[in-house]
Structure formats: C-alpha cells, structure tokens
Amino acid sequence: MERYNDHPVPVDGEAIQVLENKLKIPTHPIIPFIEGDGTGPDIWKAARTVFDFAVQQAYGGRRRVAWYEVFAGEKAHRQFNDWLPQGTIDAIRHFHVAIKGPLTTPVGGGFRSLNVTLRQLLDLYVCLRPVRYFSGVPSPMKRPELLDVVIFRENTEDVYAGIEWREGTPEARKLIEFLDRELGKKIRPDSGIGIKPISATASKRLIRRAIQYAVENRRRSVTLVHKGNIMKFTEGAFRDWGYELVKEEFSDVCVTEAEAGAAAPPGKILVKDRIADSMFQQALLRPEEYDIIATLNLNGDYLSDACAAQVGGLGMAPSANIGDHHGVFEATHGTAPKYAGQDVVNPSSVILCGSMMFHYMGWKEVSHLIEVGITETIRRKQVTYDLHRQMEGATKLKTSEFAAAIAGNMKAAVVAA
User: Fold this and answer.
1) Does 140-157+198-310 match 1-129+319-417 at the fold level?
2) Among 88, 114, 260, 338, which has the highest number of CB atoms less than 10 A from its own CB?
3) pLDDT tens digits along 32-84
4) Rg over CA atoms, the chain
C-alpha cells in the first residue's frame, strides 16, 4: 500500500494526473490536506463538512473527494520531529492538489516560513488572491462592493528569495567590500545585506498567467504594479517585460493603455501599469477601475492584505499557490492559538480556499454552491463571533454551527433552483 509519512493512502480514491499538460481529475480524487496549527483543526473540520456536502449536492454521489491527511507545522513536529517532512512534500507533488490551514512559523528553526518553503520547493510561482465583498460583512469602507480584484503575486523571487546575510558576518563584510572595490558602491560596514532578484523568466510566466486568467474569465483589465520609478532594473524591468509579453503573445486579445487610453475597444483586455504607492491610493479611491493585478512578491504581500481589509479582513480572504501542475490552497490568516479547540473562529477563509480549489479542478458546480452557501448565511446574519460583534441583530454561531448553516442554506438554494 502506498504511504507517505508512514500514513496509508486512501484505497477508495485515485491520484490526479497530468495528461497533455493539463490536470486530469478522476471522479474520486485523492486530495492531501494539512489541518493547520492552533485553530486549524476546528476550521478544517467545519470546512470539510461544507466541502463534502457541496460535492454531494452538486453530483448526487457520482463524485467524491478521498481526503488524505499529510503533516506540517506543530503536528508534524510532535509526530516526526520535523516541521515539514519530506513525505508531505512528496505527497503534494504526487497528488498535484492540496489544501491547508494556517501554520506556525517555527522560531529559530531552519525555515523562514513553512508556507514560503512549500512554494519554493514545489515552484508554486503564482500566489492567487481574489478579493471581493460578501454582502453584509462589516467593512470600514462606504462602498466595499466596488472592490473586486484578483491579485497575481509572484511567489519565488524578490526579497522573499531569502538571499541575505546578517550584519557583521564574514559573508556580509565580504560582499560589502566587493561592492566597494569592484563596483564603487559604498555601503555602511554595519549593514545587513539582502539581494533582490527579479528575472524575465519569473516575471513573464506570472504575467502570462494573469492575462490568461483575464481571457478565460472575461475580465476587463490587467494592471502591472511595480516601483519601477526607483528600482529601474528590477521592478521597472518587471513592467517592461510585461509589455513585451503582451506584444509577443497577446496582441490579438490585449491592448495597452498607451495605445487605447483609459478604455479598451470591445473584446480587448486593457493592460496598464501603476506605481505601487499610487496603487494603494487607487484601491481606496477608485477601486472600480481595477480588475486583475499582476505584481511582485513584496508588493503583492502588502497589497493583497490591504485590499482584504477593505472587504472585511483576512477572515474572508482565500489564497492559492499555483505552479504549472500543482496547486496548494491555503488560509491567509494566522493560527490564533488562544482560541484553539473552542469551536468559535470563522472558517470562511479555508472554506473559500476550497471554493477556489474546486474551481481550479474544474468542479465549478461545487465552487458555486459553496459561495452561494456562504453568501446566503452571511446575508441572514448567521455568523461567528468576529462578525457577530460588528453586526446588529446577528445570530452568533460556533464554528461547527456556521458550517452547518452554510450547508443548510446551500441545500435550500438547490431546492429553490
């Protein structure tokens, strides 16, 4: 029997395969899951209830997920004395699609971040962050519904590549001396040093995925967000490579802002660019003008969280890390250990990650049902404590009760249809 981390693979499922460069999804796919740390087990239990119910409602038993637990974070460390076992990486690589709850980043260990490590090992070069408003969710904005963007954040380069040396180390001193001696660049000797790599390869493949998504989903525009006015040969190059890509591969479906002005002709996608600091203002002041955003790693980290705050916070924000043949779908919020085991936290982020995952697999009926269930449950003000305290006349539900309410409202929508 096939095993990872000495944990047997479900015998009632099949592996997702890649045929002709596309995922082939069986009727009973094996999908690895990492339940997460802190509140992760509470959230995962609720999310799985919603996922299984939605699949049943959509396909009447003809399709089903064979869930397969793999391990990372605190649970992996307790069982295997390893924060990210090789078996977990091998399982995700073999089964192609996985979902995970929030993970603790080990203090003082060999990992900067377990999430970043997974992205780099599996070459998950797209961090996909859709940010939209669900009616009724408390928001600091007057009209949060105007923001509806999908952010494509490059996942493998920039300062997140982890190429840096601590101040005072021999490596830092050596690099400082080299830059002074060979290139005439003066750096204070008590500096830490970091390298910011931005390549044409990584930039173009990220922007390519953003434009393809815009085409497939009939979106209006793609905006390249960068700080190229200052970092001309890294972030400025990202912008330039993006426009090169449009000319080389997408001239039949795209037009640039320089060519068309503020509006693209019918049937064309407008490609434009914005300086990063300006984009933060634009997201607040003119959110309706933006649709698909492609940006670098650090900009994307900042921008996706800032946009999420406009529509209700990270508790309502799903995320996916996607490569050519692999997708790992993950919650964007933290582990909230003080609430662990209390059945009180909001599971919406992981549930919406599941909606993204099923859409990625081509099970769009399931994705639709999940979003219908969440939308209707929030509209009825049946919410967990974090939303309840901000909503007048709401009913406070436990995590498990919120999942049951989503399933019930999902079923009601199917009956009504």
Assistant:
1) yes
2) 88
3) 999 999 999 999 999 999 999 999 999 999 999 999 999 998 999 999 999 99
4) 22
| Residue 111 pLDDT greater than 60, yes or no | no
CATH architecture of 140-157+198-310: 3-Layer(aba) Sandwich (3.40)
Contacts of 156 (CB under 8 A, 6+ apart): 119, 120, 123, 124, 125, 202, 297
CA distance 309 to 383: 18
Q: Is 188 exposed, middle or buried (0-12, 13-18, 19+ CB in 10 A)?
A: exposed
Is-contact 374 134, C-beta < 8 A? yes
- DSSP secondary structure string, 347-363? -HHHHHHHHHHHHHHT-
Q: Could you give the 3-state DSSP secondary structure of residue 94?
A: helix
227 is catalytic: yes
For the chain, the helix, strand and coil percentages under 3-state DSSP, each to the nearest 5: 45, 20, 35
Give residues with Cβ within 8 angstroms of 409, minimum separation 6.
372, 373, 376, 377, 380
Spatial distance between the Cα atoms of 67 and 30, rounded to a whole number of angstroms: 6
User: pTM to 2 decimals?
Assistant: 0.91
Catalytic residue among 42, 158, 301, 386: 301
pLDDT tens digits, 202-229: 999 999 999 999 999 999 999 999 999 9
* pLDDT beyond 90 at 1: no
User: Which residue in the list 68, 160, 290, 360 is annotated as catalytic?
Assistant: 160
- pLDDT value at residue 296: 97
Alpha-carbon gap, residue 407 to 368, rounded angstroms: 13
Q: Provide the residue ranges of all domains of the chain, joining segments of one domain with +.
A: 1-129+319-417, 140-157+198-310, 159-196
* pLDDT tens digits, 113-127: 777 888 888 999 999
List CB contacts of 302: < 8 A, sequence separation 6 or more.
276, 280
Residue 417 pLDDT greater than 80, yes or no: no
Question: Residue 45 is which amino acid?
Answer: K
Active site residue 301: yes
Name the residue with tokens 């479900």: 10
Concatenated DSSP letters of 307-324: HHHHTT-GGG-EEEEE-S
240 has catalytic annotation? no
In the predicted structure, residue 310 carries a pLDDT above the cut 80? yes
Produce one character per residue of 62-82: b if its CB has 16 or more CB atoms within 10 Å, e if not. Answer: ebebbbbbbbbbbbbbeebee
Where does 1-129+319-417 sit in CATH, by number?
3.40.718.10
Instruction: Tell me which of 4, 100, 133, 227 is the catalytic residue.
Output: 227
Question: Side chain identity at 217, as an amino acid letter?
Answer: N
